[in-house]
Every structure is written in structure tokens, then in C-alpha cells.
Specification:
The protein is of the alpha/beta class and 636 residues long. The protein folds into 4 domains: 2-83 and 233-325 and 403-556, Zn peptidases (Aminopeptidase, 3-Layer(aba) Sandwich); 85-228, Glucose Oxidase, domain 1 (3-Layer(bba) Sandwich), CATH 3.50.30.30; 346-396, no CATH class; 562-626, no CATH class. The protein is built from 16 helices and 24 strands.
Length: 636
């Protein structure tokens, strides 16, 4: 891939008009605010932005169109599947004394307790409904809780478990006026307990509460939520470098475009649009300020499902160890084609060149020369006939990107300061990133002057100011560092993360566009643009001795992620060997490093009980298998 970028994109680079003139740029330009505001609203106003819901496809379509409009070359949309809970509908029926339905109220299901969804089966769930306030034990005084349906406030921490402990069969939460991501995280469990939990809009909830008037009503719940495999996408493209000395360097810059909510079907996730909005702004900026180095822009999907999008992208484009490298898409190396051997071996096997998809051009008095190849046809025939390409004189090599530096964007809107964070695995590895800290401090100084901003708008946290540490600026319990994924496939990785922001509105249906501080996003975006422009043009980006730094980095930071091709089996009675395949079962990946952040990674087995789990960390991953009744949702 590096070869292709060098010889394909360099032609485009030569067509670019000289380096952009350095003009003073006013910070937070109105057009920047307008574009980012449009992106935030566009991505958070078309339904849930989780894979399997309408907003996810809309977001992918929008990002793809914006990358193309910004002039990014070769924008590619790569599909992959991810397992998510799909809300098929839920409701509350109020009943009279004769059991007849007198009113129906729509509900939304909360995130499943691990694999146990809110599905209630054909009969639904009947019980008496009452209001239990904050769910403290004293709030249940005077009510018969066993078998009840409980209406309670959302901002009640883990008190729904009090209701469960007293025998309640379901909980309906009242939409609050404001909430926090911690409240959301406490509303589901890693244990697959059958305790249906629902979200009720505030207006409907207040009317229901008034109707209850301290008493109780007969009610019936119905709900269906199913884990399904749905397609989502990674999008990426390139911007060619214009500096002949630097254009072969490849810098990947990444942001995710999906979102998360404890209510899967109500997932505006406006705060989570900050990173992708900045990536699109950077793409537009590069159109006017062509980079010295080649840039790969990556918009990854399903960040909140165990960062599956990044793992999928790296598996296709940037793995360095077998067997992953051998599974990458292949590139036909025309310069290495042995035409004489191809003709000899294909003839001896009874293969025509046409069946191989290869065209040769005749040259008088000489061996024919290569003209073109239909690579899909070639690979299909080689696979069908079980022929190794090199036996025909054909060289197919992994079409991998040789990425020199990976930079992840992780931005939010309640601060306008950005922190530069390295992704070293051990403190001893920090020294490989010290040159970046020094250089980015210099780039920030330049950006401050151009934008008339304080250079501390970007603070480097590789070697922070004495007396301060990363913890002084960042709360790593509210974001997942994408640079860690890049690091664990052996790449040199940095992160640009918004500092001093607790991101309290994440993971709730209240994460709406009107709560986003677009001005702060615009200020971060503009500062990042000018800073990265300097980095991409600086021959000294990697320090005074880049070769030594690179060797030490690659020696100590390697590609360590593994995958499992597994089979889920049931242990029969009176047998010591699990033999029975669990078709359409559920496999849960538990990584202790991020156990309580966002959601578990879940795979569905096929009809033979087989599954493939990727992006697993050695020595820190557990796998749990479950068989679930598709009609009732019960774990069997």
C-alpha cells in the first residue's frame, strides 16, 4: 500500500498548487461554528446512532458525503457486522377491575442486563403498579412489592436493585430533567438477571404519577428486545502529501461517528459528535492547506461496542503478524510477475490466462508482457483450484498500510483545551514519545500566535508540567483511548483529548444538540488544524534520531492482539464432554481493563455454534457463553 500511495498519490501531489500562504486566522471563525453546529445536529437528529438503528446509516452516509466533498481521495466504505440489542417495541397497559385495557402508554427498553433483554414473551407481565419515588427502602412502605411493577425516578443510582430484592418484577424510570453518565451506568447489570427496566417520557410519566395519586393500578407490560447482528461501516480516505521528502510518511488520524445511550432506541449522542465533527473540519482544512506528509483519515464505527470498528479496520489494513497479515486483502505485484513461468505452469495445469483474469500483450520476438489483471477473478480461481499464487509465478502480497503515526481524536464540548496523550504500555516506554511532546509544544506556540490564542489551548501530557499528571487534566473513566488499540497492533500512537471535562451527559437520551457547546468544539478544532498542519510539514516530527526511536519503539511495542475461532457447546447430562452445538447462542467478551465502561462485546454464534472473536487482549480477556430462548428472552 505504501508503494501504491507513493506512486499514485504523488501524481496528485504534484498537481497541487504550492504551499498555502500562512495567513493570520481569527479564532473561532463564524463559518467554523456554523459547520460544526450543522454536523452536530445532523448526526444527532435522525434516530439512534447505534448500529442497527436508522441514525447509524444516516451518520455513515453523511460522513462519507462530507469526506468526498472535502476532496479526500479514494473514500472507501467498508462494511462489517456487530451484535447489538434492537428494541422491537414496549408498552404499558392500564387495566380496569375486569382486566380490560383502559389506556396504553409507550415505553422504551433500557440496555439489557448482559444478555438478558427486556423481552417478556407473548403473555407479557401483569402486576400492580405504584410509584416508589427514589427507590429507597422506606419508599416501599405500605405497598405489596412482590410481583409489582414499580414507577420510580431515574436519578436513583442503583436503587432499582432494592425493588428487585423486595420482589418487584419490573421497573419503569421517569425521564429526568437532567442526569449523568454514572446514573446510566448504574441502570444495567453484568449479571444476566431478569429485571425488565424501561424509560418513560417525562410528560407521560408525570401524568401517570398524578393518576396513581399515591395508590396503585392494575397494569400489564409487553416488550420485545432482541440481540441481532447488523452491518455498520468504517470510512476512510487519503490526502496526498505535497512535500517530496515527506510524502512517503503516512499519518493516520481517526475519530468515531457512532454514539451510546442506556436507552438504545433513544440515542442522540450529540456530545459524542465532537470528534467526528473535528475530523471533517480537518479534512476541509487540508483542502486549503495541503499537508507535507500523506494523511489517512479514518471515521470508525461501533466505538461503543468494544471499539469494534477500529479492530476491523486494523485487521484489514494494518496488522503486522501472522496469521492476521495473511488474511488481509491482497495486492497483485505486477513488477514481480514471472511471465514465462505463468505461461508454462498455466498450460501444464490446463488453465487459460483468460480464466485467471490476466491479460498479456504480445511483443514481436520477445516474451509477452503484462497488461492487466482481474484480481477478484484470479483470487477466486486460485481458491477454487487450491493453487498457490507463487507456483504460477504470481506474487500477491498483503495490501497493508505502513502507518508511521496514528493520532486519535477524542473531543467533547465542556472545555476548549486539548491534551496530547501518548499510548505507551509501560512508563519506561514514555521516552519514545518525548520528542512529540516537545514538538507539539512548539506547534501549539505557533498555533497560538496565528489564532491569537494562548498556547496552553493544547497541553502536552507526555511529560507534563512539574507537579501535575494526566489525572490533573483527564478522567479516563469517561472515554476509551483509541490510541491504545493502535498501540496494541504495534503502531506509534498519540491521542488528542479534551481536558477537564467530565462528559456527564454521555450515555443518556438527554444528550441532545442544544446541550453541546459548539463554540468550544470550534476552538478546539481550529487549534488542532493549525497544530497538525505544522506537524505534518515538520521534518523533525519524530525527533532528532527518528530511526533509533522507531527501532526501540518497534522492539518494545508489538502487535499483541489475538482472535479466537471458537465453538459454543452444551454439556449434556451424564457426559464429561460438551458435544451439542449451541446455534444462535451468545458469546460475551469480558475485558477487565474496561469492564465498567460502555458495554460488553457480544457475538452471536452461527447455526453450528461457531463464532470468531477479534481484538482480544492476551491474559486479560474472559469469554462467557449463553443460550437464550428467542421467544421469552430467558437464559436457558
Amino acid at each position: 500500500m505504501r508503494f501504491r500511495l507513493r506512486h499514485g498519490l504523488s501524481i496528485l501531489a504534484l498537481m497541487l498548487v504550492g504551499a498555502a500562504l500562512v495567513q493570520p486566522v481569527r479564532a473561532q471563525q463564524p463559518e467554523t461554528v456554523r459547520r460544526i453546529s450543522a454536523t452536530v445536529r445532523e448526526l444527532s437528529s435522525h434516530g439512534s446512532r447505534m448500529p442497527g438503528y436508522p441514525g447509524d446509516r444516516h451518520a455513515a452516509d453523511y460522513v462519507e458525503a462530507q469526506l468526498k466533498a472535502a476532496g479526500v481521495h479514494g473514500v472507501t466504505r467498508e462494511p462489517y457486522d456487530v451484535t447489538v440489542p434492537i428494541d422491537k417495541g414496549a408498552g404499558l397497559e392500564l387495566l380496569d377491575d375486569a382486566g380490560h385495557v383502559v389506556d396504553e402508554i409507550g415505553l422504551l427498553s433500557l440496555w439489557p442486563n448482559l444478555v438478558r433483554t427486556n423481552t417478556l414473551g407473548p403473555e407479557g407481565l401483569s402486576g400492580h403498579l405504584f410509584y416508589a419515588g427514589n427507590g429507597e427502602y422506606e419508599d416501599f412502605n405500605g405497598f405489596h412489592v412482590d410481583g409489582a411493577i414499580v414507577l420510580m425516578e431515574f436519578n436513583t443510582w442503583k436503587n432499582w436493585k432494592n425493588a428487585a430484592a423486595l420482589g418487584a418484577r419490573a421497573v419503569i424510570f421517569i425521564e429526568p430533567e437532567s442526569s449523568t453518565l454514572w446514573e446510566s451506568r448504574f441502570k444495567w447489570s453484568w449479571a444476566p438477571v431478569h429485571m425488565p427496566r424501561f424509560w418513560l417520557s417525562r410528560q407521560a410519566a408525570l401524568a401517570l404519577k398524578e393518576r396513581l395519586d399515591g395508590g396503585q393500578l392494575s397494569a400489564r407490560l409487553h416488550a420485545q428486545m432482541v440481540f441481532e447482528s447488523h452491518t455498520t461501516w468504517n470510512l476512510w480516505g487519503t490526502v496526498p502529501g505535497q512535500d517530496p521528502e515527506l510524502a512517503d510518511d503516512i499519518i493516520a488520524i481517526q475519530a468515531y461517528y457512532d454514539g451510546i445511550s442506556v436507552v438504545p432506541a433513544d440515542n442522540p449522542a450529540a456530545e459524542s459528535t465532537g470528534s467526528i465533527a473535528a475530523l471533517l473540519e480537518f479534512a476541509r482544512y487540508l483542502r486549503e492547506h495541503p499537508p507535507g506528509r500523506t494523511v489517512v483519515l479514518i471515521a470508525s464505527g461501533s466505538n461503543f461496542q468494544g471499539q469494534r470498528g477500529l479492530f476491523e479496520w486494523f485487521d484489514v489494513h494494518a496488522r503486522s503478524v501472522d496469521p492476521f497479515r495473511e488474511r488481509m486483502p491482497k495486492r497483485f505485484v505486477a513488477d514481480s510477475l514471472d511471465v514465462e513461468r505463468l505461461i508454462r505452469e498455466s498450460t501444464s495445469r490446463g488453465l487459460s490466462l483468460d480464466s485467471l483474469g490476466i491479460k498479456l500483450r504480445s511483443v514481436a520476438g520477445r516474451t509477452p508482457v503484462f497488461e492487466s489483471v482481474d484480481q477478484p477473478r484470479l483470487e477466486a480461481l486460485l481458491k477454487l483450484r487450491r493453487i498457490k499464487s507463487d507456483s504460477l509465478g504470481i506474487r500477491l502480497e498483503p495490501d497493508s498500510l505502513d502507518i508511521d503515526l496514528f493520532i486519535a481524536l477524542e473531543l467533547s464540548s465542556k472545555s476548549d483545551q486539548v491534551g496530547l496523550v501518548h499510548s505507551a504500555r509501560l512508563p519506561a516506554h514514555r521516552r519514545y514519545f518525548v520528542p512529540f511532546g516537545r514538538n507539539f509544544t512548539r506547534y501549539a506556540q505557533h498555533a497560538g500566535e496565528r489564532l491569537e490564542r494562548d498556547p496552553s489551548s493544547l497541553v502536552q501530557l507526555i511529560s507534563p508540567v512539574k507537579g501535575l499528571s494526566d489525572d490533573s487534566y483527564l478522567d479516563d473513566e469517561v472515554y476509551r483511548e483509541s490510541g491504545r488499540v493502535a498501540r496494541d497492533v504495534g503502531l506509534m500512537a498519540l491521542n488528542l483529548i479534551t481536558t477537564t471535562d467530565k462528559r456527564m451527559v454521555l450515555d443518556t437520551p438527554l444528550d441532545t444538540p442544544d446541550r453541546v457547546n459548539v463554540g468550544n468544539l470550534a476552538r478546539q478544532s481550529e487549534f488542532i488544524n493549525v497544530t497538525l498542519e505544522q506537524a505534518l510539514a515538520d521534518p523533525g516530527l519524530f525527533g532528532e534520531d527518528p530511526e533509533t526511536t522507531r527501532k526501540l519503539h518497534d522492539k518494545n511495542i508489538k502487535d499483541i492482539f489475538v482472535a479466537i475461532n471458537g465453538r459454543l457447546r452444551l454439556l449434556p447430562r451424564r457426559s464429561a464432554e460438551p458435544k451439542d452445538p449451541v446455534g444462535h447462542g451468545m458469546v460475551v467478551i469480558v475485558n477487565d481493563f474496561y469492564k465498567y465502561m460502555w458495554r460488553p462485546t457480544i457475538y452471536l454464534t452461527d447455526k453450528r455454534g461457531e463464532y470468531n472473536a477479534r481484538g482480544l487482549g492476551k491474559w486479560r480477556t474472559q469469554i462467557r457463553g449463553f443460550k437464550v430462548d428467542p421467544l421469552t428472552g430467558d437464559v436457558t
